[in-house]
Design brief:
Elements lengths: L1 E4 L5 H10 L3 H4 L2 H9 L3 E7 L2 E10 L4 E9 L8 H12 L5 E4 L5 H6 L17
Parallel strand pairs: 4-5
Antiparallel strand pairs: 1-2, 2-3, 3-4
Length: 130
């Protein structure tokens, strides 16, 4: 597997990836998704050979704050360490940034993915937090 910057937006590939993991709110508005990609701080792609296996998308200023907006891995490539490798690549790239946040859905699947080394203070919010 290689991780490189996702520099050339391929709409069919990206819509297929988002749809494969059920993120249809994005696929219903492809122009908005494209603009989001164009204005992102960093997008990395994980590739098995020439095939895209997953992406990570970060937004923010890159100096004081970075938000990991999306981590997506095609189902056939899940549970092979690709998501963790993508996350590690962003954390390494922005190791000088004090505040790195993960902004994503708060699901059981995500809780199994989050590694304590990446986000040691991560916890699932409940009603008492609101």
């Amino acid at each position: 597997m290689k991780i490189i910057e996702y520099a050339s937006y391929n709409e069919q590939e990206i819509l297929s990836l988002y749809a494969s993991v059920g993120w249809t709110a994005y696929t219903e508005h492809p122009d908005t998704l494209r603009r989001g990609f164009e204005n992102s701080l960093l997008i990395l792609g994980a590739y098995e050979g020439e095939q895209l296996a997953g992406i990570i998308r970060a937004v923010g200023d890159g100096h004081t704050v970075v938000f990991v907006q999306d981590i997506l891995v095609f189902p056939d490539f899940q549970r092979k360490g690709i998501g963790s490798a993508l996350l590690r690549a962003v954390l390494d790239r922005y190791s000088n940034v004090r505040q790195i946040e993960l902004t994503t859905d708060n699901t059981e699947k995500l809780l199994h993915f989050i590694n304590p080394w990446a986000f040691p203070n991560f916890r699932k919010l409940d009603a008492s937090d609101l």
